C-alpha cells in the first residue's frame, strides 16, 4: 500500500488541503482523519469539493490507538492543542509534522511572550526541525518532529533569505508588509470574515506585532548571525488564497542590482519550489500565479535613487504557506521525491 | 514518450488549461503549441503560472508540417478559424478535437443563422461527433473529428439530460437561466471585461438568444425525439471560473421527486465526472465546488406546490466546459483511461 | 427639527442604511436607534463608516416611552419580532414602517404556511398597506402601518408589473430566477457567509420555495385578477449589494416587442425611481448601475423565435430592496417630496 | 443657477465622479462636459448609473468658446494634456482645478525625470497651489490654478503629516507601501485590468519608483524642512475603490504612543474630512469604511518592541484621492462651505 498517514484536525482549510494533496500522492494512504466537531460525518460533509474522493471515509474523534497504526501524523490544530498529542505519538516512533505554532520557536520563554502560555515540553523544542526545506533540508532528513512554518512567516522568510544570507542589507531597518487572503484566518466564521465585511477590505491587523514575527526573527537571525528586530505588519486584502510579503530594506554600501540577482540565483537556483521572477511580462511576484500550488515566486524591486530594495515572495497561503510545505517536508523525512503529490501546476485564471 | 499532441491556439485561457492538464497526463507529449500573436515567445510569457513547466517551449506560428508530426491535434480558435485547418489535418490521419463552434451543429444551414457564415464543409458535419461523453461515449471511441461542446451548452445539457430522457417535463416550457464567470469571455480585454466594470455585475447578455442554444436544442431534441425550442438567457456574474445552468421546467402528470431521483441515478450513476448533489450540507450544485476540476455537479429543486422543478448543473467553464471535457473525449478516442490527466480534485476554498 | 423618527433594530445592514439615508433627509431628526445587542455602544461601534455622523448617539434598548416621543417608527427586525411592538406604537398615533415580513401577507393563514407561526393580529393585516409606491401610492398617502416589501420580492414584482397588468404573458408559466449579493442575508455571520465560502459562489438556495414568493404571488395575483402560482428560485452570487430578478415568461398571442415597450412606458414612465433600460450601451438592467441608490432599473429581452420574453429588474437590495423603499413610502405617508433623502446618484464603479 | 462649471475630460472615472458629486452641489451648474471619444453621445452612454441625472446633456468636444462661459473648469486628462488648455483658461479669468499631474511639481526639471517631458510653462508652476486643504487651505483661498493631488500621493501624505510635522520619526528610513483598487488605473481596458487577470491579485507595480513619490517627497520635504528620499511601493489589490498607505517608520528618541496621538489630534482635530481611527471595534484605517465619500481615515500602529510605527491613511481613490478632494479645494477657492456636495456618508457594506 504505502506509508500510512493520519491527520489530526482534518476539518479546517489546511486539513482539507492535506486531504486534497494526499489524494494525489502515490506513496501514501490516509488511514484516519479526525475532527472533534464532525466526528462520524463523512469527509465530504465538510469538504464537498472532495466528493468522489475518500468516498467511504468519515471523520473520527481523536483515538490514539487507531492513529498510532500510522507511520506519520500531520497535526493541524489551534495553538496549544498539538502539545497534548505530540509526545505520545513521538514515543511510539511515528514521525510528526505539526502545522500549528506549538513547536516553531526554539526558546521556551518565547511562548509566554507571543502565545501566552508556558511551554510544557522545552526538551522537545530542542529536537524539533523548523520545516522549511530551503533552510533546513539536511536536518529534515533525520527529523522526527517537524514544526511547519506559518504562512505569513513563510512568505517573509523566503523574501529575505538571499538578502540576509549574502549580507546585502541594513539589518536594523527591515519592515515587512504582508498582504493576505481570507482563507488565512481559517474555516471558522467571525464578524470580520463575514462576506459583506471582509470583501473589498484593505485592512491592517495585529499591525503592531503579529505572532509570526517571532519565527521570522528566529530564522533570519540565525542566518544573519546576530539578533534582528523586524517590523511586521500584515493586511487582509480581497482574495481568498494568497500571501505576498514585501520586505522594505535599505542596501549596504556596495550592494547593487547585480549582487541581488546573484544572491537569488545562489540561494534558490536549485530549489524545486522556488521560482525567481524577473519580468517582463510579469515583473514581480504575485500570488495570483501560484494559486493551488506549492510554488513560492520570489523577486525584488531595486530603487537605486533611494538606495533601497523591496524583496517579495508570493505564496498560496494554504499550500507553500501550510499544507504544501508540510507535505514537502514530510517527503524529505520519508525519503520520497520531495515533489511527490505536489507537482500540480497553479490554477489560472482563478 | 507517448502520444504526440499539438495545440493550435494555445495562448488563450482554454489553451492554457489544455497545457496545464496535459502536463499531468502520463500518456501524452505536447510537441507544438501555436499562437499567431505570441509566436517565438516562451509559453510562460503568456502563462506565467506555468513557469517550471514546458520550460524550453515557445509558441510557434501554425506550421502544418510540424503539426502533422503529431498523433492528435486540439484546436482552440475563434469561430470560423478551425475550418482552415481541420480538413488537411484529418486527411493526414490525425485525430482532431475542436474546442470551437465550427463543427458543433449538424445542419450546415444553422451556421448561417447562428454564426453568420455558410459552412463550407457540410460533409464533415456528418461525421463529426459532439464531444460530450455522457451522450456520445460509444461514437467517440471511433471518432476522427470531435466537436467539443460550449461551456454554457455543457451546463445546460447536463442539467436536463435526465428530465428529457425520462420524459418528466413539459417540453414546451423550458427556460434555461445560466450564470457564468468572467473567464468565459476569453483572454482578450474589452470594455465589458475591465475589472471595475466587470466585478460585481449581475449582467444579462445575449439574453434573447445566445448562440449556444443551438447546440442545446440539437442535443436535447435528439434525446426527446422531437424538436424543442428552448428559452436561454445567460448572465455574467462576479467570479472568474464557474457556470451554473438553472433549467426551469414544469413537470408532467405523474412525475415526482422520486422519479427525478431515479432519472438522475440511471443517467449519471456510472459517469466518472458527474456528481449528483443531494444536500445537506450543500443542497444544490454550485460551481464553487468544482473549480479547477473536470467534474459537473448536478441536482434539482422540486417544488410540489407549483408542479415544477429546477434542474441544475455546475461546472468549471474552462474545464468540463472546455479543456477538461476535450481531454476526456480525447482519452476515449485514444483508448486511454477516460480520467487520465483529469483526476485532480477541485480547489477549495478558491 | 423636523419630524422625529425612531428606528427599532438599527444595528443591522438595513438599520445602517436607514441611518445613512436619514442623515441626508432634510425633514427628519432621528431621536432613537435601538439594538438589544449593542445597547449603550456608540452608533459608530457597529457602523464605523458613519463616524462623523450621529456623533454623540448611542444604541439604546427598546424603551417604548422614549420611542413614543417620535412621530414615526421604522422597524427592522427578524420575522415575528415586530409583532411585539407594532400595536402599541400604532395606538399611540405614530406611523409605522415595518421592514420585516410580519405584516406583508394579507391572509393570516399564510403566516402558518410560509413563516411557521399563527398571526396574532389578523385585524391589523386588513389595514396594512404593502409599501411599494409603484403599486399602492394612493393608499400609502393615508396609511398608518406600512409593510415594506422584501428585496427579492421587490425585484420580482417590479420586473413583472407591466407584463401582468397589460396581460402580455401566459400566467401559468412564470419562472422567476433571482440573483443576489451577500448583504441580503444580513449582518450575522454564518458558515455560508464566511468569506472563503461565500465569495465566488453561484449558489441556489431555498430553491423550491423561498418565502418571498408569497408576497410576489399576492401582489401579482391582485394585478392579474386571478390567483397565480409562480416558480421562484434565488441564487447567491458574488457581490455584496445587488439583486436581479429575471422572470422567464411565454408571450400570449399578439404580444410583441412593441406591446412590451408600451407596457413599460405606461406603467413606469412617471415613476421617480424606475429607470427603463433599453441599450445600447447597456442592454439590460444590472444592479451594478444602481448601487447605493433607490433606483430600480427595469427592462426585458424579447425572443421572437421562441415566443417568450425575460423581464428583468435590478435593484440595490439594501436600498430599493429595503431601506430606500421604506423611506420612499414614509415620504409619501408624511406628505414629503417622495424623493427626499433619496436623490443620491448610484455609485460607480463599485 | 449658481456658479457655472465645465469639465474637460468627463468620460473617465474621475470625470464621472465629478458629475456625480456636482449633481449634489447646491451652488453649481455644470454647463459643459467634454470627451473627445464620446463627443455627441449622451452622458449616460458612458455613465449609465447617471441615468435620470444630466438627462439632456451630451458630451461635447473641447470648444473653448463654450467652456470660457464657465466660472471654473475642472480638467481630468492624461499627463501632458492639461498644458494645452490651462494658460488660455487662466487668462480668461476662470479658476482651474487640474486633476492630472501637469502642475503638481514645483520644479520644472522634475517633469523631465518623472514624466519624461520638458515643462513648457515653468512660470505657471510658481503660482499653482497643491490642492490638499490639510496642507494649503490658506493659499487655496486666493488660488487661481490648483493642482489636485494624485491618489497614492494623497494617502501617503495624509498618513505622514503628523509624524513629519511633529518630528517624531527618523526621516532617513521611510518606506511607504500602498495598496490600491482597480479603479485607480482609469477607465481604459488593458491586459492587466482584464477581470480574470486583475481579480484576486496582490500585484506590486512600478515598485522601484512610482511617479507619485515625487509629489510625496515635495510636500513632506517642505514640512520637514529638508529634502527627503522616500521608498514607495504600490500594490494592486482585489477591490475596485480604495487606497491604503502604510508608511513604515522608525521613531526618534522620545517619541512614543502619546506623542503620536497628540500629533494626530493637533494636525487633524479640526479637519472636516479627516477621521482619526483608534479602535476598537475597528483598529486601523481601512478604505472599506470610506467608499463613495471624501473622508480620509487615518491612524497608526505603534510597535514599542521594535521602536517603530506604521502610519496609515485610507481613502476612496476616486474621491479624496481625486474628484472629492478637487471639489473640496474648489469649494475653498470659491468661498463655499468646504463640505458642499461632499457630505454623503460612505456606503457600507460595499
Describe this entry's structure for a reader.
The structure is a homotetramer of 350-residue chains. By secondary structure, the first copy, chain A, is of the alpha/beta class. Chain A has two domains: 3-127, NAD(P)-binding Rossmann-like Domain (Rossmann fold); 151-317, Dihydrodipicolinate Reductase, domain 2, CATH 3.30.360. Chain A contains twelve helices and 13 strands. The first copy, chain A, has helices spanning 13-22, 43-46, 64-67, 82-91, 108-115, 122-127, 133-141, 151-165, 195-198, 212-224, 257-268, 319-334, and strands at residues 3-8, 28-34, 72-75, 95-98, 129-130, 145-147, 175-180, 202-204, 231-237, 243-250, 274-276, 296-303, 308-315. In chain A, strand 5 (129-130), helix 7 (133-141) and strand 6 form a beta-alpha-beta unit. In chain A, helix 1 (13-22) packs across helix 12 (319-334) and helix 8 (151-165) packs parallel to helix 10 (212-224). Chains in contact: A-B, A-C, A-D, B-C, B-D, C-D. At the A-D interface, strand 7, strand 8, strand 9, strand 10 and strand 12 of A face strand 7, strand 8, strand 9, strand 10 and strand 12 of D.
Q: Concise description?
A:
By secondary structure, chain A is an alpha/beta fold.
Amino acid at each position: 500500500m504505502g506509508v500510512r498517514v493520519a491527520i489530526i484536525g482534518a476539518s479546517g482549510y489546511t486539513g482539507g488541503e492535506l486531504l486534497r494533496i494526499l489524494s494525489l500522492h502515490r506513496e501514501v494512504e490516509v488511514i484516519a482523519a479526525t475532527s472533534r466537531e464532525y466526528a462520524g460525518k463523512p469527509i465530504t460533509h465538510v469538504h464537498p469539493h472532495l466528493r468522489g474522493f475518500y468516498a467511504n471515509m468519515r471523520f473520527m474523534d481523536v483515538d490514539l490507538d487507531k492513529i498510532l497504526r500510522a507511520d506519520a501524523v500531520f497535526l493541524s490544530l489551534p495553538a496549544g492543542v498539538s502539545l497534548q498529542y505530540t509526545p505520545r505519538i513521538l514515543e511510539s516512533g511515528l514521525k510528526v509534522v505539526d502545522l500549528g505554532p506549538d513547536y516553531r520557536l526554539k526558546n521556551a520563554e518565547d511562548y509566554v511572550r507571543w502565545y501566552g502560555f508556558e511551554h510544557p515540553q522545552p526538551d522537545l523544542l530542542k529536537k524539533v526541525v523548523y520545516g522549511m526545506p530551503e533552510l533546513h533540508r539536511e536536518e529534515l532528513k533525520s527529523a522526527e518532529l517537524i514544526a511547519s512554518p506559518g504562512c505569513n512567516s513563510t512568505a517573509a522568510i523566503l523574501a529575505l533569505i538571499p538578502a540576509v544570507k549574502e549580507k546585502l542589507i541594513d539589518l536594523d531597518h527591515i519592515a515587512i508588509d504582508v498582504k493576505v487572503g481570507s482563507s488565512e484566518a481559517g474555516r471558522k466564521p467571525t464578524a470580520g470574515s463575514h462576506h459583506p465585511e471582509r470583501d473589498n477590505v484593505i485592512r491592517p491587523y495585529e499591525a503592531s506585532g503579529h505572532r509570526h514575527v517571532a519565527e521570522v526573527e528566529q530564522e533570519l537571525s540565525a542566518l544573519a548571525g546576530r539578533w534582528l528586530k523586524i517590523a511586521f505588519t500584515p493586511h487582509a486584502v480581497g482574495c481568498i488564497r494568497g500571501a505576498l510579503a514585501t520586505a522594505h530594506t535599505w542596501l549596504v554600501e556596495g550592494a547593487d542590482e547585480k549582487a541581488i540577482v546573484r544572491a537569488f540565483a545562489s540561494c534558490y537556483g536549485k530549489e524545486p519550489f522556488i521560482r525567481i521572477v524577473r519580468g517582463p511580462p510579469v515583473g514581480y511576484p504575485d500570488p495570483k500565479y501560484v494559486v493551488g500550488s506549492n510554488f513560492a515566486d520570489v523577486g525584488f524591486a531595486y530603487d537605486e535613487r533611494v538606495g533601497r530594495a523591496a524583496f517579495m515572495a508570493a505564496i498560496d497561503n494554504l499550500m507553500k504557506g501550510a499544507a504544501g510545505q508540510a507535505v514537502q517536508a514530510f517527503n524529505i523525512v520519508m525519503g520520497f521525491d520531495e515533489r511527490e503529490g505536489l507537482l500540480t501546476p497553479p490554477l489560472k485564471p482563478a
